[in-house]
Amino acid sequence: MNQTRYFIFNNADESAFIETPVYDSGLRGNMWQRVLADAIIPNGGSIIWTLYASDDPNDLKEVFSINNLTDFIAQNVKGRYLRLRAQMSESVRLRLILIYCGWESFLDYLPEIYREYDGFLDRFLKLFSASYLDVEKQIEKLPETFDPRYATDFTLRKLAQIVGVSHVNLWCEDGLRKLLVSGIYSQRGRFSVFRDYIEFFTGFRPNIVENFRAITGNHMSDRLYEGFDITVFLPPEAAKAKLDINSINVVIADFLPSGMTFKVVILDVQPVVSDYAFIGINSRIGAYEQTTIGSSRIGFSIVGGKNEKRQSISTGEE
Q1: Angle at CA 162, nearest 5°, toward 158 and 164?
Q2: Is 240 helix (H, G, I), strand (E, B) or coil?
Q3: Sign of dihedral through CA atoms 219, 222, 224, 227?
Q4: Is residue 261 within 8 Å of residue 225, measured between CB atoms?
Q5: Considering the domain 5-140 in this protein, what is its CATH number?
Q6: C-beta separation of 201 from 178 below 8 A
Q7: How far apart are CA 276 and CA 11, in angstroms?
Q8: Model pLDDT for residues 225-284, shown as the tens digit of each residue
Q9: CATH 2.60.120 spans which residues of the chain?
Q10: Are 200 and 175 in contact (CB under 8 A)?
């Protein structure tokens, strides 16, 4: 029985005219089998295939031509060497070509008297063997179908639904892929993976402040505690990305324990002093000369520690 062999040509620059290298099947008088292309031909678009074959690489002759197909049997294309040309209209997008130079023929299952290779019966059975070959390849790649690293976008979202990820349509493909590969979708309610979870969705690394840790100073527990507020600070770059805050809120709510309240704040490049100001995250304490907040002036002030000579805030009144 023949062994399935093929060549792959990648049209990286998506040019309108391509010509493959001369492919060597390694067998004189080889019967070339099938051409399968990853191409999009819109209405009004055209693609013309021309195949040249011969046992002499320096004397290739045109032996087959066909138009506007992305999967066809190369009938009567015989010779050890082959070159393929494709002429396309500008609207056609061709990314990859698969050229089969040999595969298992269904004639091998029949008695010797019926084995007329490249005869009518052989060409007729090639129609079914092509479908059989496609199914066989799908079976071989079945493990990859369930691997989030390689799954298509459609399959990826189905896998996410299977493992319990909510609102999968809100996720971009890249972020959802990272989420499934990391496995943190199964670690809901954990503080240590919360930043990664938000980064996968938004594309920006956030800062997280949980009131439980800010108030108690307890950083040993990895649990997010219901009844305590949590604030998510996104960097200023997030403002330029025009993120959908409603979608972010929905996705964060999926991760947090039920009943836990949270706020999402996109930081500004300007100083922020409000209910959302946290030391070391979006505010600093140090020496500022004549810094003005409202009508008050702040000179050098010390926060924390024992200091008998603390300077007070001056309002300009003696």
Answers
A1: 115
A2: helix
A3: negative
A4: no
A5: 2.60.120
A6: no
A7: 52
A8: 777 788 898 988 888 888 888 999 999 998 988 778 888 888 876 555 555 566 655 565
A9: 5-140
A10: yes
Token couple for 251: 């996705």
User: Tell me, which fold does domain 187-281 have in CATH?
Assistant: GMP Synthetase; Chain A, domain 3 (3.30.300)
Distance of alpha carbon 49 from alpha carbon 53, whole angstroms:
13
Give the DSSP letter string of 98-164: EEEEE---GGGGS-GGG--TTSHHHHHHHHHHHHHHHHHHHHHTHHHHT-TTT--HHHHHHHHHHTT
Single-letter residue type at 240:
K
Distance CA 73, CA 196 (A): 49
**Close Cβ partners of 290 (under 8 Å, ≥ 6 residues apart):** 297, 299
Predicted confidence band at 48 (pLDDT cuts at 50, 70, 90)?
A: very high
DSSP symbol at 21 = P
> Which residues of the chain form CATH 3.30.300?
187-281
And the tokens for 174? 């890249």
Q: Which residues contact 113 (CB under 8 A, 6 or more apart)?
A: none
